[in-house]
Design brief:
The protein has 428 residues and is of the alpha+beta class. It has three domains: 124 residues, no CATH class; 132 residues, no CATH class; 135 residues, no CATH class. It has 15 helices and seven strands. The strands form two sheets. Strands 3-6-5-7-4 form a five-stranded mixed beta sheet. A two-stranded antiparallel sheet has the order 1-2. The protein is globular and about 80 Å long. The N and C termini lie far apart (51 Å).
């Protein structure tokens, strides 16, 4: 579907509002018409989470993931970059996959409704101050129960081995006797070659569950400008999530195909099992990937964790799961002791409150969108447990994000309760 058709959908929504016909119809500027400018960066986060959750097939699986900050720029068009995921770009309009239509509409309505309800009357653009379809008719319901949110997430035992040594003996036998940190540090030296290999293979994004093959033989087109020989992936994961109901899953449901390197996953996931690598084709233009079905609780969490396995950037991981200020993320760049920095911040109540205030500031809509952040972190935690990702630094980062998000949720819920009490008093 062309981008102009997606714009038409937005236009239909805009026609219900005064003085909106002359407004530029690009997605970011349309939403910023209702939102404070400070929320625009976080809108990208909302777009990622909603589009990935509502339409997993849009999450490209045959190319490497870009760092989260690549999505933080403000462009003029919402495009679906075929390389990996939705992002805002300054490029020309591109054709948009038809399946984006319904998630796009739902996302737009959600962003506008949650954003406008956080504004005071003076903050709303003058053209909308007479309009009463959003903030002033928006029902404020009971707040989420913060008592249900634990203060800490359960952690694995300290003696748990954080690598899958039987798999390492197959994919990297020369590393199988080293410690987990030493193995991951050694592999990080070849991260660019691993990513080049992911970029080179041409896999379909999804396939019907009943059509998953034992092995996929796909074309490999390495970057001719690269000076290093790519390391091609060894496996392709057919990723799905548990069904929402007890009804049998239809055989024609689509699952995402995600290429991986067995050595990388073995170095990061102690509980993963993989079949033996496929026999390679004699034609160097093709690569054979053994397939493995994987059921996980959260597709967005898996994509984020996969990004961390290959990039080894704890600052990118934190930025992907929660809006941390740039000043804090800058401290975690390579060359600094990230574990010590995270521990020091986590033990400082004042710093935790400051980070929580930033999360509240970046989360339009109050307590309910904050619940979405809590649920995202819960999905990350469950996925880490399912895969057996026991790396100490990763858990330190998740613990800090959970503490900050819970503090932010309590603050947002308190403000929400006050607003609810004020509304009930006004009705009397």
């Amino acid at each position: 579907m062309p981008f102009s058709e997606s714009c038409r959908i937005i236009t239909d929504r805009a026609k219900t509002l005064p003085s909106a016909k002359s407004f530029a119809l690009s997605f970011p500027s349309f939403v910023s018409y209702f939102m404070n400018i400070r929320h625009r960066r976080d809108l990208v986060f909302m777009a990622q989470a909603q589009l990935r959750g509502l339409c997993p097939s849009l999450v490209s699986t045959n190319h490497a993931l870009c760092p989260p900050r690549a999505l933080s720029g403000f462009g003029t068009n919402l495009t679906i970059d075929s390389r990996w995921s939705p992002k805002l770009t300054m490029g020309p309009p591109v054709h948009v996959h038809q399946s984006v239509v319904f998630p796009f509409r739902a996302l737009l309505a959600r962003c506008i409704n949650t954003a406008v309800t956080t504004m005071s009357h003076n903050q709303v653009p003058p053209q909308l101050q007479a309009h009463t379809g959003f903030k002033w008719n928006y029902a404020v319901t009971a707040i989420p129960d913060t008592e249900r949110v634990p203060t800490m997430l359960p952690r694995p035992s300290a003696h748990e081995d954080d690598v899958a040594r039987p798999l390492l003996a197959v994919f990297a036998p020369h590393l199988s006797k080293l410690s987990g940190d030493a193995i991951r540090n050694e592999m990080s030296r070849s991260s660019s070659r691993f990513l080049d290999g992911l970029n080179a293979v041409q896999l379909p994004h999804t396939v019907q569950r009943n059509l998953v093959q034992v092995a996929f033989t796909v074309p490999a087109n390495p970057d001719p400008t690269s000076h290093e020989r790519p390391i091609y992936p060894s496996h392709v994961l057919a990723v799905s999530t548990p069904p929402a109901t007890s009804r049998p899953t239809p055989i024609d449901v689509h699952v995402a195909l995600i290429p991986i390197h067995g050595a990388v996953f073995a170095a990061n996931c102690a509980r993963i099992t993989l079949p033996a690598p496929a026999t390679q084709s004699s034609d160097a233009r093709f690569v054979s990937l053994a397939s493995h079905r994987l059921t996980i609780c959260s597709s967005p969490a898996f994509i984020t964790l996969r990004m961390y396995m290959y990039g080894r950037r704890i600052d990118d991981f934190l930025e992907a799961i929660l809006p941390f200020p740039e000043s804090f993320l800058r401290q975690l760049r390579r060359g600094s002791d990230a574990a010590q920095t995270i521990a020091a911040v986590h033990q400082n109540p004042g710093e935790v409150r400051r980070l929580a205030e930033n999360v509240v500031y970046c989360t339009p809509g109050g307590a309910y969108p904050m619940w979405d952040r809590i649920q995202l972190l819960q999905g990350v935690w469950e996925t880490m447990c399912d895969l057996g990702m026991y790396e100490r630094l990763l858990w330190q980062a998740l613990d800090l994000a959970w503490t900050v998000a819970r503090t932010a949720l309590c603050a947002a819920s308190s403000a929400h309760a006050k607003l609810l009490a004020d509304q009930q008093r006004d009705r009397r």
